[in-house]
């Protein structure tokens, strides 16, 4: 398909991104403010030769997505915080069975039912720590309608490459804002599919990772490779084991395959950072306000810059640590009571970190961030 | 051993995964046997066409890792949801869920009735032992009223589900209930279930001497098989009615035998109309 231009909302850009990435299965359950994604996919999936199934709850939708992915089908679901809360156990299963899938969380106000129609960024830590046990996750944080498209494509690519669930964490404002979207010609899109085994079935070890990227090739259900996959701790054959060394080896590899490939995974934008004394670290909607505030601060002669995180997990620890040595102050505006803030603090200490917390729907406005920059500049 | 001496089921099993983890006298071996007999009777010499999905609990260990097939061991209660996604994404696969009553009817009850309502193209086999066996014998949604378990020490005050009637009423195309004392009719029913389009559900009453037998003082495996052998068999076309299962009032046989359009057929029809 040739390039297409739309004026549309973030949720629909996300669905279009999924279609462009080759998604052929959507397990859905309605929830504000993510419902538009399910609606769009229910309309498009049958036309694209895929399947949309609406489930009885979010536990079923995510679990069905794991099942669908094992057939080799690129699969996804979309929800909001309460839905993710229900999905957490299944996310652990996807991590443990190394199942590629994309999980979109259009973040709304919480805790509990909270403010369904108001955006927030309260689920950053949930994405990383929500399911039990030690694991790593990939989470992308788009800040525009175009990025909802681009980063959904990227989410599919990363999930396939690293055999892992990938979150798209967008605050409600990004999900519901309307902007120009350019859908590139499909030949200009770089798409990734999981690697499949090439060995003889008698030699296939479904959970033996390749040494270079620590990712095992993934056989498809119904192929000549008959395998066993379980959420139990398993050896390279996939068989359950209660041995200590098997547990340590597996959990360490699952962690390393994300952390050791962090440079490949992490995406961010540096804006006017080179000579900055004051850095703002932001993501999602507040990063848009921050950009404007930084331009205004520069106009006043204040050396401010922005590090915009497009990936929050794995957290770009080294980059933030380096930044901590280059600037005098770091400001972190977040639509929550401080989540990425804690990560910045642990990476960039002892550089002073200033949290601008706002656990509500209206993001920090440009003039509020500018006021904070001025205040710090005058210290 | 000559070929005729090798049990027919061995060709479908992963030798390296044997022996099974089941207690001596457990009914799960007979459930396995009935299932594999049905597969054998259908003329399969291997399980290549199949994908097996199970949840958590003793019953979930029937297919995995023992069956020489694609076997997926999922989270507690979610096997049917997992299997639905799998089947919707690849209709070519013959998808079978084998799990226990706690897994399928308590924590997974919602998925079970909704898959039946969708008439999803799946075969679900429920090994019903009336108790949580793996965790040592706690009351569940199929435990009889009055049964003393580790978490109903004064006798179960609740009523059990009649799973066969529940799933039949939810819209499944084929539903039957048999027991480990009836392996041949059970295998026949499983065979029908595998052949039938839409949602098929086989409830296999299965003795758990370790947890159910011991906790509820129902005796050993032999006592329980004798009891199950005495259960009444439904007459063909006898109305389903409503009843709360008791140890004597647990009827066996076929509870639904329909051929209504399955989920996948309805999906195809929908696509044609787009
Ligand atoms: S606890 Fe009961 S159901 Fe579980 S393996 Fe032992 S006898 Fe079978």
Oligomeric form of this entry? heterodimer
Give the fraction of residues assigned to helices of chain B. Answer: 25-40%
Main sheet characteristics of chain A: 8 strands, mixed
Give me the CATH fold name of the largest domain in chain A: Rossmann fold
Separate helix tally of chain B: 9
Ligand types: iron/sulfur cluster
- CATH architecture term of the largest domain in chain A: 3-Layer(aba) Sandwich
Residues in β-strands, percent of chain B: 5-15%
The CA-CA distance between the termini of chain A, in Å, is 55 Å
**Which topology of chain B does CATH recognise?**
Rossmann fold
Number of strands of chain A: 16
Shape of chain A: globular
Number of domains of chain A: 2
The main pleated sheet of chain B reads as:
7 strands, mixed
Strand content of chain A: 15-25%
CATH top level label of chain B: Alpha Beta
**Spatial order of the strands in the main sheet of chain B?**
2-1-3-4-6-5-7
Uncertain runs of chain B are none
For the record, the CATH architecture of chain B stands as: 3-Layer(aba) Sandwich
Could you tell me the mean pLDDT of chain A?
A: 97
CATH class designation of the largest domain in chain A: Alpha Beta
Task: Tell me what you see in this structure.
The complex is a heterodimer of chains A (379) and B (274). Chain A is an alpha/beta fold and 379 residues long. Chain A has two domains: 4-188, Rossmann fold; 269-377, Rossmann fold, CATH 3.40.50. Chain A is built from 13 helices and 16 strands. The longest helix of chain A is centred in the middle third of the chain and has 18 residues, at 145-162. Chain A is globular, with a radius of gyration of 21 Å. With 274 residues, chain B is of the alpha/beta class. Chain B has a seven-stranded mixed β-sheet with strand order 2-1-3-4-6-5-7, with helices on both faces. The A-B interface holds A 24-25, 27, 46-47, 51, 53, 55-57, 59-61, 63-73, 75, 89-90, 92-93, 97, 221-222, 226-232, 238-240 and B 14, 17, 47-49, 51, 53, 64-65, 68-75, 77-78, 81-90, 92-93, 110-111, 114, 267, 270-271, 274. Strand 10 of chain A pairs parallel with strand 2 of chain B. The site of iron/sulfur cluster (SF4) has 12 residues of chain B, from helix 7. Iron/sulfur cluster binds at residues 22-23, 26, 28, 58, 129, 133-134, 208-211 of chain B.
């Amino acid at each position: 398909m040739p390039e297409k231009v739309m004026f549309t909302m973030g949720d629909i850009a996300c669905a279009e991104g999924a279609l462009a990435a080759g998604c052929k299965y959507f397990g859905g359950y309605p929830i504000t403010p993510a419902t538009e994604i399910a609606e769009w996919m229910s309309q498009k999936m049958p036309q694209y030769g895929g399947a949309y199934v609406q489930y009885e709850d979010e536990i079923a939708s995510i679990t069905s997505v794991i099942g669908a992915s094992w057939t080799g089908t690129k699969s996804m679901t979309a929800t909001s915080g309460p839905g993710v809360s229900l999905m957490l156990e299944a996310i652990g299963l996807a991590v443990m069975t190394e199942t590629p899938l994309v999980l979109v969380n259009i973040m709304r106000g919480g805790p509990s039912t909270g403010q369904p129609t108001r955006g927030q960024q309260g689920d950053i830590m949930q994405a990383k720590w929500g399911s039990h046990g030690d694991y790593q996750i990939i989470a992308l944080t788009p800040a525009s309608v175009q990025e909802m498209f681009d980063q959904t494509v990227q989410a599919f690519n990363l999930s396939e490459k690293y055999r892992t669930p990938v979150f798209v964490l967008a605050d409600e404002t990004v999900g519901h804002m309307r902007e120009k979207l350019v859908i590139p010609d499909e030949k200009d899109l770089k798409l990734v599919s999981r690697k499949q085994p090439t060995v003889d079935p008698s030699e296939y070890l479904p959970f033996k990772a390749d040494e270079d990227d620590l990712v095992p090739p993934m056989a498809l259900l119904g192929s000549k490779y008959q395998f066993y996959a379980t959420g139990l701790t398993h050896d390279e054959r996939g068989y359950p084991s209660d041995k200590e060394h098997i547990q340590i080896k597996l959990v360490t590899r699952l962690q390393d395959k994300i952390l050791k490939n962090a440079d490949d995974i992490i995406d961010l934008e540096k804006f006017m950072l080179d000579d900055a004394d004051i850095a703002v670290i932001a993501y999602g909607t507040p990063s848009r306000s921050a950009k404007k505030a930084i331009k205004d601060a520069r106009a006043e002669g204040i050396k401010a810059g922005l590090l915009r995180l497009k990936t929050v997990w794995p957290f770009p620890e080294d980059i933030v640590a380096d930044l901590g040595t280059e600037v005098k102050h770091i400001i972190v505006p977040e639509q929550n009571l401080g989540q990425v803030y804690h990560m910045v603090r642990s990476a960039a200490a002892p550089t002073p970190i200033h949290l601008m917390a706002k656990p509500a729907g209206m993001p920090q406005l440009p003039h509020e961030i500018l006021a904070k920059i001025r205040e710090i500049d005058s210290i | 051993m000559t070929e005729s001496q090798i049990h027919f089921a061995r060709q479908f099993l992963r030798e390296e995964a044997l022996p099974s983890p089941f207690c001596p006298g457990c009914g799960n071996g007979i459930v396995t046997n009935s299932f594999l007999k049905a597969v054998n009777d259908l003329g399969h010499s291997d399980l290549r066409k199949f994908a097996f999905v199970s949840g958590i609990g003793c019953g979930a260990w029937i297919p995995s890792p023992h069956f020489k097939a694609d076997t997926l061991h999922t989270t507690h209660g979610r096997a049917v949801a997992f299997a639905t996604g799998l089947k919707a994404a690849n209709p070519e696969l013959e998808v079978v869920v084998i799990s226990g009553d706690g897994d399928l009817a308590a924590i997974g009850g919602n998925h079970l009735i909704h898959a039946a309502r969708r008439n999803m193209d799946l075969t679900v086999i429920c090994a019903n032992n009336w108790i949580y066996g793996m965790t040592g014998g706690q009351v569940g949604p199929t435990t009889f009223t009055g049964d003393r378990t580790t978490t109903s020490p004064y006798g179960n005050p609740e009523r059990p589900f009649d799973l066969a009637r529940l799933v039949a009423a939810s819209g499944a195309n084929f539903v039957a209930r048999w027991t480990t004392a009836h392996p041949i009719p059970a295998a026949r029913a499983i065979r029908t279930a595998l052949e039938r389009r839409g949602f098929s559900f086989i409830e296999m009453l299965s003795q758990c001497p370790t947890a159910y037998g011991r906790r509820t003082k129902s005796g050993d495996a032999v006592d329980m098989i004798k009891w199950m052998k005495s259960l009444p068999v439904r007459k063909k076309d006898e109305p389903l009615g409503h009843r709360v299962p008791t140890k004597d009032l647990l009827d066996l046989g076929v509870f639904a035998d329909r051929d209504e359009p399955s989920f996948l057929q309805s999906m195809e029809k929908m696509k044609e109309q787009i």
